[in-house]
């Protein structure tokens, strides 16, 4: 097991997959959170009082985002890495298909695809959690809690970005919250009764 872990770490380092995965994690978690915020706000302003609708829409959306992200990232990353491998083979005049580099590329493709698929789904699922507690809490409380969780997740993503870029953490977190608040304002304006 320890040998396998070391091999995986080597593959991650050789392929630089962790940099791509880190970038995709932030972008796709961000997408998942903002998308489900839109769903939650839309359901709220539609006047529906059944939490199962939010849960079903949220789970369905998170599964769709996960499958879309995973398959799209896998196919795109696989194509890019195969191209790089062929260019390297052409330059070196050697077959590298069974090399460590080729195995690292394959491993990186899977890692990137998993991160791309899982990150928006996780972000989406966090936002629908309050609706599992209805009727212990009412729909209004679940709505507010969901948006609060969404803003909290965006703040954490901002902290993560600041750590990568060595920027001020609070400023980065607040910047992400402002994007969330802007999204809430626009979607609320569009979803409010009589706005369309």
Characterization of this structure:
The chain has 196 residues and is an all-alpha fold. The protein has a domain at 2-135. The chain has helices at residues 2-15, 17-46, 51-92, 100-128, 139-165, 169-191. The chain starts with a helix and ends in a 5-residue tail after the last helix. It is built from 6 helices and no strands. Helix 3 runs antiparallel to helix 4 (100-128).
Described by strand count, sense and barrel closure, the largest sheet is: none
What integer is the average pLDDT? Answer: 86
Q: What overall geometry do the principal axes of the alpha carbons give?
A: elongated
Structural class: mainly alpha
Question: Strand portion, in percent?
Answer: under 5%
- What is the CA-atom radius of gyration, in angstroms? 21 Å
Helix fraction, binned, reads over 70%
Order of helices and strands: HHHHHH
Q: What's the β-strand tally? A: 0
């Amino acid at each position: 097991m320890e040998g396998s872990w070391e091999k995986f770490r080597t593959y991650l380092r050789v392929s630089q997959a962790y940099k791509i995965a880190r970038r995709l994690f932030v972008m796709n978690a961000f997408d998942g959170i903002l998308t489900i915020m839109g769903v939650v706000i839309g359901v709220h302003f539609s006047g529906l009082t059944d939490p199962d609708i939010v849960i079903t829409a949220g789970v369905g959306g998170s599964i769709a985002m996960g499958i879309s992200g995973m398959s799209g990232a896998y196919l795109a990353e696989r194509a890019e890495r195969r191209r790089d491998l062929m260019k390297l083979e052409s330059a070196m005049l050697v077959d590298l298909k069974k090399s460590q580099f080729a195995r690292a590329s394959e491993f990186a493709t899977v890692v990137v695809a998993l991160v791309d698929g899982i990150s928006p789904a996780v972000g989406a699922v966090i936002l629908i959690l309050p609706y599992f507690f209805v009727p212990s809490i009412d729909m209004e409380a679940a709505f507010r809690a969901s948006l609060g969780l969404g803003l909290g997740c965006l703040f954490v993503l901002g902290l993560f970005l600041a750590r990568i870029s060595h920027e001020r953490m609070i400023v980065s977190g607040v910047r992400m919250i402002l994007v969330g608040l802007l999204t809430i304002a626009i979607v609320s304006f569009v979803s409010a009764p009589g706005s369309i």
